[in-house]
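Here is the promised in-class demo. Please do not try to memorize the tokens; focus on the logic of going from shape to residues.
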């Protein structure tokens, strides 16, 4: 008798085949029907026990959440809802789950409740589906870059620089928290610290990625990044995963083409390879939408949204055009936006991004050529001297999913910019070196992985698409 995953059995199991399966009980009905799940698929397999043949104390232990090993025969199902089922000949409880204590019961639990049980929530249909889609997306991302000749690059997690210049970093230190060494000025003396200087968790692998692109031509990173921004929103995490391709000899237009092609390709992959999970999530979202007032409901279902993105061209719009649209928009005139757009130069908030995508263009939008003042120091300055070759990809329901740019490859221009912004030349000496020795036009972007998973699964809160979320005041598990 061989052991099978439930996915294998449901796909290619043969009637009269003897099987062994292991998994967790989802439900046990009428002292007879066990719905067993082993995480290989959203679908359960029905296992039928003849209670006359089993000890009553054993049957009592078949409760939601318990671990079972089942031996039996595959048979055609008599009931509705499944083609095949397992006629159980032997059953062992490998792990009990006391129903008075086990928190995940077969009923609707709120997302907030499940976040507090993040070690168990992955045993629910919703989280199982989300995490399988997340895994499939990771695979699709690596295969996209591999097929297109990119070198996978591991950039450091501990760094001395602040790539985004936003000062939202977590400090790394081994100094005594109560009694750190001090310098002559009474400040913490980081020269005594582990690395001999102040270090942080990285906010982006881009800067090191650029060094590699200027040698290996096409590279990408895919790793954890950390931001100590105190944003308690449904789109921000303190620890998230980012994909950052960086390509030599590529300009901003090429960068937009790459971002669009890349996103479409990975979404197409899950549409083809995660059918059961996406169908489940699609239905889940439809049910959730029904609880909302009519005017707040989404026009498209999850699957329609995914197909829409794959099948339609992203709209490319300059920042300047976007500001004109926003200034003339109803919510701006009626002061419905929290931040009213008064003039060119204003930073766009998520309400503005969502207006452009969801109300005005009704499709993904790539905004480009932003004012230099609201973007990072490394972006290439345009000839107008006031805008930079930046691009953000904006998605319905999410807002910004990608941020990127063509990089400033001219030594003098970069140096001047760093001086204006008071960026430490001594810390980034090597980044300037890249412009001194064999510089080249180059571009790249960062895709927030969890925002992509959010879009792909229709989950409202970013905390529900990462196994164990880290957010302000929360680092449990
Ligand atoms: O726009 P950002 O800050 O760009 C960069 O870090 C560049 N260095 C990327 C590059 O050009 N190589 O971040 C990129 C993306 C955002 O568009 C967003 O999707 C995601 O990362 N992101 C977050 N996701 C979750 N939680 C947060 N706190 C995030 N901050 C950014
Ligand atoms: Mg950004």
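The designed amino acids, position by position:
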């Amino acid at each position: 008798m061989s052991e099978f995953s439930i996915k294998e059995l449901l796909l290619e199991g043969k009637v009269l085949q003897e099987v062994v399966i292991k998994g967790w009980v989802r439900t046990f009905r009428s002292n007879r029907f066990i719905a067993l799940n082993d995480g290989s698929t959203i679908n359960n397999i029905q296992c039928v026990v003849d209670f006359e043949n089993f000890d009553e104390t054993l049957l009592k232990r078949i409760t939601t959440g318990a671990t079972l090993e089942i031996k039996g025969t595959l048979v055609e199902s008599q009931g509705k809802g499944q083609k095949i089922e397992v006629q159980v000949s032997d059953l062992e409880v490998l792990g009990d789950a006391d129903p008075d204590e086990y928190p995940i019961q077969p009923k609707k639990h709120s997302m907030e409740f499940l976040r507090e049980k993040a070690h168990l929530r992955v045993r629910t249909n919703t989280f199982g589906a989300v995490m399988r889609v997340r895994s499939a997306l990771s695979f699709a991302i690596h295969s996209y870059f591999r097929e297109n000749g990119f070198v996978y690059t591991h950039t450091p997690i501990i760094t001395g620089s602040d790539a985004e210049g936003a000062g939202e970093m977590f400090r790394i230190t081994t100094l005594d928290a109560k009694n750190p060494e001090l310098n002559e000025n009474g400040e913490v003396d980081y020269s005594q610290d582990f690395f001999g200087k102040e270090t942080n968790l990285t906010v982006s692998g881009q800067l090191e990625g650029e060094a590699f692109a200027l040698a290996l031509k096409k590279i990408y990173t895919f790793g954890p990044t950390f931001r100590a921004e105190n944003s308690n929103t449904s789109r921000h995490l303190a620890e998230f995963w980012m994909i950052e391709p960086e390509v030599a000899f590529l300009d901003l237009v090429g960068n937009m083409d790459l971002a669009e092609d890349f996103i479409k390709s990975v979404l197409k992959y899950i549409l083809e390879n995660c059918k059961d999970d996406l169908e489940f999530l699609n239905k889940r979202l439809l049910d959730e939408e029904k609880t909302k007032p009519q005017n707040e409901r989404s026009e498209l279902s999850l699957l329609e949204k995914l197909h829409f993105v794959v099948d339609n061209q992203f709209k490319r719009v300059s920042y300047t055009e976007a500001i004109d649209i926003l200034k003339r928009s109803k919510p701006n005139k009626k002061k419905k936006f929290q931040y009213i757009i008064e003039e060119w130069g204003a930073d766009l908030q998520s309400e503005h991004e969502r207006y452009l995508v969801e109300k005005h263009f009704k499709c993904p939008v790539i905004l480009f050529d932003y004012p230099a003042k609201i973007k990072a120091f490394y972006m290439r300055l345009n000839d107008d001297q006031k805008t930079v070759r930046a691009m953000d990809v904006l998605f319905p329901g999410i807002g910004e999913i990608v941020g990127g740019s063509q990089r400033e490859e001219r030594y003098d221009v970069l140096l001047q910019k760093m001086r204006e912004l008071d960026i430490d030349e001594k810390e980034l000496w090597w980044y300037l070196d890249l412009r001194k020795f064999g510089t080249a036009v180059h571009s790249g972007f960062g895709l927030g992985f969890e925002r992509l998973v959010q879009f792909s699964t229709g989950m409202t809160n970013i905390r529900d698409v990462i196994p164990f979320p880290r957010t302000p005041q929360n680092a449990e598990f």
